[in-house]
Amino acid sequence: MSALIEAKGLTIHRPGSHDTVLQGVDFRIEPQEIVTVVGPNGSGKSSLIRALLGHVPLAAGRVARKAGLRIGYVPQRVQVDTTIPMTVRRFLSLPRRVSGDVAARVLTHTGVEEVGARQLTQLSGGQFQRVLLARALLHDPHLLVLDEPTQGLDQPGIVAFYKLIEEVRRQTGAAVLMVSHDLLVVMRASDRVICLNGHVCCEGTPQHVSSAPEYRALFGAEAEGTLALYQHHHDHDHDHDAACLHPHHHAGAS
């Protein structure tokens, strides 16, 4: 298979019930592609990520991963015990020790090469996110999976992080799959956008999705802002085919 991950008819139920979280989702990501999943709260974005990673059971459908696929994962939340002293360098060696050269390389890739000897508690929010990204790069992944990677960052920090993602893709050749709610910045940073609300509402290039009625209905004024961005300031070309899907609404989606 050419895709790194491909899903067909993916359906997920809420744990312990038959309530549908996602229904009938088709998904694929190709090498070196940046794909972002957007949708309102409760739309199934994180459930999709967990299903693609094999962390939740499927009610229906299938997920195929390319043989030998290496995945680097940055979860939505990481709890760090602030009572335990731990340097960045030590954090990168959990649970398996990595060499100083490897640690220095990934920290350089993410623009925080100077923080290796610092305590985690001394890092800013933006620095900590970059350290998490560095950790995800330790084993040269083919695919980076980032679940809401800019939570808690201010707007300049968000913009800087997405610029970093594009640079990491260029340097490493890794594909990137992100879940995000930062619509304007995401639209600048993505090759393809998938809009979820319990099913795939709309999919295609950022320019295409930003003008789709399904996307505009979900995000209102924010969607109008991204549409304006592409009407007036679209300054680069996408060569990926765009397709907007119009599946029926599925009861019980969340």
Q: Strand pairing plus helix content: what structural class? A: alpha/beta
Shape: globular
Cα(first) to Cα(last) distance is 31 Å
Mean pLDDT: 86
Say what oligomer this is. Answer: single chain
Rg from C-alpha positions?
18 Å
Major beta-sheet overview: 6 strands, mixed
Task: Summarize the amount of helix as a percent range.
Answer: 25-40%
Range of strand content: 15-25%
Explain what you see.
With 254 residues, the protein is of the alpha/beta class. The protein is 33% helix and 21% strand. It contains nine helices and nine strands. It has helices at 45-52, 88-92, 100-109, 125-136, 155-172, 183-189, 206-210, 213-219, 221-232; strands at residues 5-13, 20-29, 34-38, 60-65, 71-74, 143-147, 175-179, 192-196, 200-204. A six-stranded mixed β-sheet has the order 5-6-7-3-8-9, with helices on both faces. The protein has a three-stranded antiparallel β-sheet with strand order 2-1-4. Helix 3 crosses helix 4 and helix 8 (213-219) packs across helix 9 (221-232). The longest helix is centred in the middle third of the chain and has 18 residues, at 155-172. It is globular and about 50 Å long.
